[in-house]
Amino acid sequence: MQQVAEPKKTGTLGATAIGVSAMLGAGVFSAFAPAAEAAGSWLLMSLAIALVVAASNAASTAQLARQHPGAGGVYLYGREQLGAWPGFVAGWGFVIGKTASVAAMAITAAAYLVPEPFARPAALVVLLAVTAAGMLGITRTAAIATVIGSVVTVGLLGALVTSQLSPPLFGSASEDDAVFSALGVLQGAGILFFAFAGYARVATLSEEVRDPRRTVPRAMLLSFSIVSALLAALGWTLLATLGPGRLALSPAPVAALVETQPVAVTVVSVLAAVSSIGALSAVLAGSSRTAMAMGRRRDLPGLLARQQASTAVPRFAVLAVAAGATLLICVGDIREVIGFSSAGVLVYYLIANLSALTQSREHRTVPRAVSVFGAVGCAVLVATLPPLSLASALGVLVVGVLARLALRRDIVS
């Protein structure tokens, strides 16, 4: 009998590259402006808080993934550790949060490609094109993601250097920008949490790497270190050159750094669009597959679980996510959409941390204090998000709960 070759697995360097690529999505090009509007000159403190909360969430998620290796993420972990309802809340929070992420990524791509008056129609065109590709089963591979992440990293470093050699026409910080506001800093942290979207990918590499017990933690630490250093450098440069006031008003802040160099502006705009569209494609696929999994368990309408025979694409789930993103593009601005996304995803990771706290000692790889801090951090950041974003996200969460109750009642009867 012919022996089947074992799939090639990557080491720490490859796993780190995948992690960095997953984390460098649209957030790096869009989240700093609305965060600066909230935090002012204290933007870097917001970034530090977002980083620590994200790291705690990743540690809890990695611990859960080792015990529950099946697909489904925190939707599965919540069901296994806490029960069906917490699992549903996690899954629904993920679906609505990532639906908002899809909208934010389309808005970001458009903001860097076309003038502001045309940004909303352009965002709809981007979403339509990516949805059409997703319906055909076109997905982004890890190798392509790594290439995109590497190019984006180099491009961002180039923009930072260019901004120092040829400074833009920047504004200075006002006294109002320098006033410390705890609520503003926490609100900025909740918005900047969006910039770390994708870090869960590092926690799910166990089947793709050599010696996962050593490689996954190392890759996670390296990924966080690289991305947080890049974000810190970018945040500092944006504050120093544009000032909090102008940064808060800029629809394309990274391009504004190199505005005196037309070629550099074009390069940055293309990088931002490519990165955002690539992330949009991946998030659209991930959120629709979670909706499909929930449809199979009748936590959402069973129609969402139907797959196209030729491509295995859950077309109704993809269309549902795209429809929700279309609505958000039409009625929301980037600040509210990012806040909505962060609210859903923070609820998702709140359930992850609570699930990790119930794991027995033999399955624990991080101190309980990490999961406690992650849970408290998620709850605080959710509570301090922009009021309209928070109210909208909570309203959609409640609608989901009511819909599940109706579905369950229908099944029982």
Write the layout of secondary structure elements.
Layout: H1 12-23, H2 27-30, H3 32-39, H4 43-67, H5 74-81, H6 84-113, H7 119-135, H8 142-165, H9 175-178, H10 182-192, H11 212-249, H12 253-257, H13 262-296, H14 315-331, H15 334-357, H16 368-383, H17 387-412
Helix pairs in contact: 1-8, 1-11, 3-10, 3-11, 4-10, 4-11, 4-15, 4-16, 5-6, 5-15, 6-7, 6-13, 6-14, 6-15, 6-17, 7-13, 7-14, 8-11, 8-13, 13-14, 15-16, 15-17
Structure keywords:
413 residues, mainly alpha, 17 helices, 74% helix, globular
Concise description?
The chain has 413 residues and is mostly helical. The chain has 17 helices and no strands.
Strand content: under 5%
Q: Any low-confidence stretches, pLDDT <50, length ≥5?
A: 1-5
Structural class: mainly alpha
Residues in helix, %? over 70%
Q: In sequence order, what are the helices and strands, one letter per element? A: HHHHHHHHHHHHHHHHH
Could you tell me how far the N terminus lies from the C terminus, measured between alpha carbons in angstroms?
53 Å
Biggest β-sheet strands, sense, barrel: none
Shape: globular
Structure, described:
This protein is mostly helical. α5 runs parallel beside α15, α6 crosses α7 and α15 packs antiparallel against α16. The longest helix has 38 residues. It is globular and about 60 Å long.
